[in-house]
Amino acid sequence: MLWSVFDELVQSTTSDAALLVEARRTFSTLTGQVEPDHELYAERSDAFVEWFLFEQRDHEGLTRVERQLREIPLFDPKRPHLLALRSSHRSLFQVVRFLPQGLLLDDLIGGGRFAIDERRRLPGVTTDDLFEARLIPDPERKPSLCFGRALLFHPREAADAVREQVRSARHKSEPRTELLSRLLRLRLRCFAYRHVSAARIYAQSAG
Predict the structure, then answer these.
(1) In this structure, how many other beta carbons lie within 10 angstroms of the beta carbon of residue 126?
(2) Residues 6+ away with beta carbon under 8 Å from 73
(3) pLDDT at position 119, please?
(4) Any idea of the CA torsion for 9, 10, 16, 18, to the nearest 10 degrees?
(5) What mean pLDDT is predicted for residues 86-95?
(6) Virtual CA dihedral for 115, 116, 118, 121, nearest 10 degrees?
(7) Which tens digit of pLDDT belongs to each residue from 157-170?
(8) Which residue among 6, 33, 140, 159 sits deepest, i.e. has the most Cβ atoms within 10 Å of its Cβ?
(9) Residue 54 burial by Cβ neighbours in a 10 Å radius (0-12, 13-18, 19+)
(10) What is the reported pTM?
(11) Could you give the CA distance from residue 124 to residue 134 in angstroms, rounded to a whole number?
(12) Residue 99 and residue 105: Cα distance in Å, rounded?
């Protein structure tokens, strides 16, 4: 039911085309402009939807999921699922090892180790891979955690530079959202400058 509630929330909050265009423009400013024919467009679209629902705030300071929770009855059966979506946690993770039905991850920004129930096939994913994701509690299988729909991987050859970005951000007390946005811009830059090593591109903006 979690994903049917998610899809309903998307439908109910994306009917205003002008608002959506403006939100997409803001997201692109933060994370880099990705055109529809770009190979990253699908994953960035998933990331935009999650950001739009769970992070961008309206004129009253509410996210879309918070507004939905305020508007539905207290005992609506969708409430536990909306609460789970509201408590989602976006960060940069490293694969520690594979589990029988998921992954064990380290949160490189906030700290902590998490076991994730993941039934999708993740071809090519290996131990130590670094990626941005959103963790969501599953109210029907407590205390299980699952991924959101956006999984945004960083190049393996840039892993050390990514970790240096994290260390630098921590030293400067940089907000998590700013660090994640910069890392996504750097990932996009790798596609624009394929003749330059990813490690060099990520390192240029660290420190």
Answers:
(1) 9
(2) none
(3) 77
(4) 140
(5) 97
(6) -70
(7) 999 999 999 999 99
(8) 6
(9) buried
(10) 0.93
(11) 20
(12) 10
Mean pLDDT for all residues in the chain: 94
Signed CA dihedral, 66, 70, 73, 75: sign only: positive
Nearest to 28 by CA among 6, 59, 51: 51
Q: Is the pLDDT score of 142 beyond 70?
A: yes
Q: How crowded is residue 167: how many other Cβ atoms within 10 Å of its Cβ?
A: 13
Residue 206's pLDDT band (cuts 50, 70, 90): low
- Distances, alpha carbon 155 to alpha carbons 90, 115, 130, 132, in Å: 19, 23, 8, 12
- What secondary structure does DSSP assign to the chain, as a single string? -HHHHHHHHHHHHS--HHHHHHHHHHHHHHH----TTSTTHHHHHHHHHHHHHHT---TTS--HHHHHHHHS-TT-TTHHHHHHHHT-EEEEEEEEEEETTEEEEEETTT--EEEEE--S--TT--TT-EEEEEEEE-TTSTT-EEE-S--EEPPGGGHHHHHHHHHHHHHTT--HHHHHHHHHHHHHHHHH-TTS-HHHHHHHT--
Between the CA atoms of 19, 176, 204 and 41, what dihedral angle is there, to the nearest 10 degrees? -40
